[in-house]
Fold this sequence. Notes:
The complex is a heterodimer. Chain A is mainly alpha-helical. Chain A has helices at about 1-25, 35-40, 55-65, 75-90, 120-125, 125-130. Chain A is globular. In chain A, about 20% of the residues are buried. Mean pLDDT of chain A is about 85; it is low at about 15-30. Chain B contains six helices and two strands. In chain B, β1 (about 80) and β2 form a beta hairpin. The radius of gyration of chain B is 18 Å and the shape is globular. The chains are: A mainly alpha, B mainly alpha. The interface of A and B includes residues 66, 69, 70, 72 and 74 of A.
Amino acid sequence: MQKSWAYLVAGSVALLSVIAFGAGSVSSATPAPDPTYVKECSACHIAYPAQYLPKRSWERILGTLDKHFGENATLSPKAVGPIKAYLDAHAADSVVGNPRTLRDVPASATPIRITEMPFWTRAHAKLIARKAFDVPKVKSGANCIACHRGAANGRFEDDD
Amino acid sequence: MKIRFVAGLALAALVPVLAYAAAAQKPVLDAYAVAAKAENTGFSGFSAERGKVFFLAKHDAASETPSCTTCHTADPTKSGQTRAGKDIAPMAVSKTPDRYTDAEKVEKWFTRNCQSVLGRACTAQEKGDFITFMASL
């Protein structure tokens, strides 16, 4: 009797591990690999995935770092080059095919907040309605990692 | 005779090494002292007390970041938090010993944060006072 319990527990643990591992390996966004981008752009917030904004948006952000959402975030000239190259190469409109992150973004618009992108507001509609981003622990939609524990590594699953 | 001389030399060389090990922030502070003298011939050293007043003051240049304490909290031995919700390691040297040891990093953050909080560059006097305060905690 005791032995069958042990089997059951061992089996459940194995099954849960498989589920957990499976969930962890599903990637909706690739990690940010450029070391300069990660070093310079993840001190105050996570290194946001490049494919969450189009090239023109990243260019505007890089061009206005002295007024970066209310703070001065200027970069040394030597850091700008690799960061711009990385963002250009991996921006939403550099992704092959028809990336879902660009859906419903007019060509005339240059959004600078990921939280204004239609893919983002759609995915978070229920939470926005519940004012879930206003609680002190979250602070704002910019704080991905408050809910998506794997966000710094490019993982944004629903169940994180 | 020769041995004694060599031993003496080795000891003399060791003294400044030990002093630097005790104050890893000294090179950065020394550089700010040189700059402060260049800014003001009446420069008479840095003050932890002035650094404390500066750190706690409400500068009000920007509504998002009116003070250093907006993100760093009023207790530099505690962790702070960025506006986007990321933790900031304590500013006090006793809690984060490698603070103010990398001159390039120190300048980067003074450049950014002085503009954000004061709406201008900080003087070398202010930077040195700030670090002296953080090293005194």
